[in-house]
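User: Working on a comparison across species. This one is TPR repeat protein from Kerstersia gyiorum. Can you predict its structure so I can line it up against the others?
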Amino acid sequence: MKKFLVVAAFLGCSTGSLAQATAQLTALGQGGAPAQFNQDVAVGQGAFLAKYQAKMVEWVRQAAEEGQAEAQFNLGIMLANGFGLAKDDAQAAIWWRRAAEQGYAPAQFNLGVMLELGTGVAQDEAQAIQWYRRAAEQGLAQAQHNLAVRLDEGKDIARDEVQALQWYRQAAEQGLALAQFNLGVKLEEGKIVAKDADQALQWYRLAAEQGLLQAQVNLGIMLAEGKGVAKDEAQAMQWYRRAAEQGDVQALYNIGVMLMSGSGVAQDKEQAAQLFRVAAESGFAQAQFNLGLMLANGDGIARDYAQAVQWYRRAALQGVAAGQYQLGFMLEKGLGIARDYAQALQWYRRAAEQGDALAQSSLGGMLTLGTGVRKDYPQAYFWLLLASTGDDSAKMMRDFVEKSLSSAEISQAQARASAWRPTLENQP
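Assistant: Here's the predicted structure for TPR repeat protein from Kerstersia gyiorum:
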């Protein structure tokens, strides 16, 4: 499940000021400008802006210099985007600051973004937060969201997840998709607010319907898995497809999973393999593992051990425990790669430390038999104890090793196993 803590981007031009400028130009046209001017206004804003851009800039600059905050904001937009004049982020920041100091919330927000990113001004995230807060307190949804993100992360401000939740909610209720998504995440997690899958689903749906692909993916996951809501795999597939059309690799992967199993859709392993490959080539670790598995087993695709090893390795390097185990297995057996017990042992150990029971069993087996390593019964027993909770073969080997250990060694290993917790590797 994705958590999406990013800031909203710059606000665009104020339609109010553009309308004023248009009215002024129209009046100019009525005062003797060519009749073509008024025809252009009637044709539409796009053609109008293109033809009368210079005059538009002149009127907006004049209003800005007279101290009109909305015009100052729009002049900043023009400078930031190179609309009718040379792009100049530093000048844009100056005009936004003037409007911001007059209390104009959109300018306060944009100035905050520039300070956060260090665009056109020296980076100053603490000041950025101050401007976000001032705009947020005026009800600007984008500022409420960005302030929530900073409070949520505790970056350059004391962490306050309860306050963050309040700001997310205020922005979400105004229809901001990013805030709706993050509010959904909070409700689904249930860490700082009572867990509420139904409410999470509703907020994800609102954001998803606005086209936010992360919300489309999370909505699909909840529907596919029936996480606190009625399971609906057909609907899940629809949302995955909408996110995939926007290029989301997790959505592509999830569609592949459903095609592989035939969940909510006709089973099609060949197409699943194709989707896994696309997602894998984009760097999606779990897709790399699944593609490797299909290649190793010849399932929906021609068997190719060498290629399987390559994909297992890519997934393993990204911290996928199952990929680390499978790479270790291929190295131990010499499938698609030269046999290398030392390397196999290393990959088994990495997967075992993440809690992979098969890797724990294999590591215990190698330590028991001395395969590529000196025999070490106490260490073997420890790993087999961990693996034996759900693996009968590990239980048998554990019992075999136990006979060769002293009661002190057994007690020590059991104490270690009771206290042991997996160390998960960070995955992208």
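For your comparison, note: The CA atoms of residues 4 and 232 lie 24 Å apart.

User: Helpful, thanks.
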